[in-house]
Amino acid sequence: MWKLLNYSVIIFLSFKSELVNGERSVEFLAGNCTYNEKYFRNFSLTISKNMMNMEMDLSRPIVRGFKVHFDIQLRLANAKNFQSVFSQVNDVCAATSAVKNSLFKSWFKDMTKHGNFMYNCPVQVGHYYMHNWRMGSTMTHRFLIPGEYRGKVEFFYGKYKTKTYEETLTLMIDTILSN
Question: Does domain 2-178 have CATH number 2.30.110?
Answer without folding.
Answer: no
